[in-house]
Amino acid sequence: MPEQSLSGKLALVTGAGNGTGRAIANELAHQGAGVVLHDFADAPNLEALNATIDAIVGNGGRAALVLGDLTQVADCYRIVDEAATFLGGLDILVNHAEIAEAKALPDVSPADFEQVLNTNMRGTFFVAQQAVRWMEERGSGSIVNIGSVVSFAGIPNHSLYAVTKGAIVGFTRQLAVELIPSNIRVNAVAPGYVNDNDTDTYAPAQNSWGRIGKPEDVARMVAFLASPAAEFINGQMHYVDGGLTSRVALYPPLVNTQELTQQQ
Amino acid sequence: MAVTGSFAGKLALITGVEASGIGQGIARELARQGATVVAHYPFSPDGADALIQEVEANGGRAGKVHGDLTNVETCLRVVDEAADFLGGLDILVNNAGITEKVPFLKVTSELFDKVYNVNIRSHYFCTQQAVRWMNQRGGGAILNLASIHASGGIPNFSVYASTKTAIVAFTRELATELVPQRIRVNAVAPGHIEVPRHFAAPSYSTELGSTFAPWGRVGTPTDVARAAAFLLSDAADFITGQVLFVDGGISTKLAVDAPPLERV
What we know:
Chain A is α/β, with parallel strands linked by helices.
């Protein structure tokens, strides 16, 4: 049997319903962790989540589901408490839940702003806060936040999403420094274009590497950062983007922003 | 006074102008260089009144507008009132901001919302309304206030640091989105700028503050104001989406000689 680097570790993955969330939970479980998968209160992906959990349990792992609304701080706390109670503690938190929506600046309403900010940033903040309480009982921990290439460079019509993902960058660095005394590491993964919603949303031409990211590309990086192998890595933003952010945008516009979000 | 200088004929709104501090410094500098300015103030009108008095004594014109920017409707009203007074809008300086130093586990959702509503939401919706006015003028320039907290972590600033990094991503995103409207969007990131509230801490002195930056002195609102004026002026017509650190070298220094954070 191959070495399992997360053997005995206890993990919560928020926003585990979509392709990337499920892949993260699968990878953590594959490497030996017990996992709790969170999804939004209306459980939009309940069937796929249950199938993932059944598969993990069928392979001899531990997995469970918790639903909750990240815009409510009380629910953030409950999600973490239920997960840690099921697992018997908490070592790893993956803050993956987010709303990603393209909207031009004039069209963003205050209600849109609340919904996206409270899910992507405030939810992340207070889930992490409660998780840290559990991790301090275990004497250590690892938090992985999910950022985005949009915190590195602008993409038109993503001003609200960029606000939340930029906030994730500052939060990650900040918390990494602040939680050193608690022996908790905090990193972030910034995916580029990933076809994560079980659909082929993006075209290959949108990526320098010549293919679109897969959920497993992101999941492997998350698992590495969560593992003891990354014990000296703290406060960093790790791009999993096929080189997208390394390339300077010095070329005539090949696609307009409409085409960027069009289906193949 | 004949209206000369690089901002002759320009119409500017600066949010968060108090009796001293960065907002006051930027407003005075823009006025000194010929802009007609409106100072938004959140609490006491003393700072705005002093500014108006000085500008009028020099033969210029300046106005003030009051409002609590934690309310989105107030943001829109403040921008509209300023533009009505000015007869349009060319320049918006999103200076309003608050700092809270609280350990991560002690942050409440009320505190989180308070800081986000001023530091991010007010920037977002003041900008949204300002862009509508700038579109009528055929272009404009926006300056956001970031911070050295957007370049690295300082313990107990988890909320503040994440808002300021959100500003960085917002700046970059909006710079790309508003290219067709010929509106430039940049940010300044002040380091340790000495303002009266620093002296509320009994241990603070200018001598101590002078050790914070490699350059060996405290920053002044004028330091930030000169950088702000440059980025807002036509001299910076090819500069958009950038963050200019005005910090005496703090953000470029690696924290290798920082005292270790004690482990629990």
